[in-house]
Write a structure and sequence with these properties.
This protein has helices at residues 2-15, 18-37, 45-68, 72-86, 95-107, 113-120, 128-138. By secondary structure, the chain is mainly alpha-helical.
């Protein structure tokens, strides 16, 4: 994953795509910060994916705040960066699939939200917030 980001950063530099270049530089900075904080160990693909998901979440929150405060210029900048980041993060499961997983977890004995979260934490690409909301409506 890091190699892909490096290659696409080089491509963005050569093509003059400043949004992609700046966004990927910020991704590399976050990865570097993570590696330094963890004793200079190299981040694996799962850790890079978590970093990317954190950055996507941050961009989405910033967009909503900027829109609420009528800062369209800043919101558009964040949306452009979000479009770059989304290319690297796999899509979350849809609501129907998440509902099926939550119902299955309830039938298998997840009697509280903590047990549900423990069960779904091992499932890749599941939207945990959506799963919590579905659980609350079902229980």
């Amino acid at each position: 994953m890091k190699t892909k980001i490096d290659n696409e950063l080089k491509q963005a530099m050569l093509s003059g795509d400043s949004v992609t270049k700046e966004t990927l530089r910020s991704v590399k900075a976050e990865i570097s910060k993570f590696e330094k904080a963890n004793g200079n160990i190299s981040a694996d693909d799962n850790q890079v994916m978590k970093i990317l998901e954190k950055l996507v979440k941050s961009r989405k929150e910033s967009i909503s705040i900027y829109r609420a405060n009528n800062r369209v210029d800043l919101a558009e900048k964040e949306e452009a960066e979000l479009a770059v980041l989304v290319k690297y993060v796999p899509e979350k499961l849809d609501e129907a699939e998440t509902t099926r997983i939550v119902k299955e977890a309830i039938m298998n004995g997840s009697t509280n939200i903590g047990m549900l979260m423990k069960h779904i934490s091992s499932i890749p690409n599941i939207d945990k917030k959506l799963a919590q909301e579905i659980y609350k409506t079902l229980v």
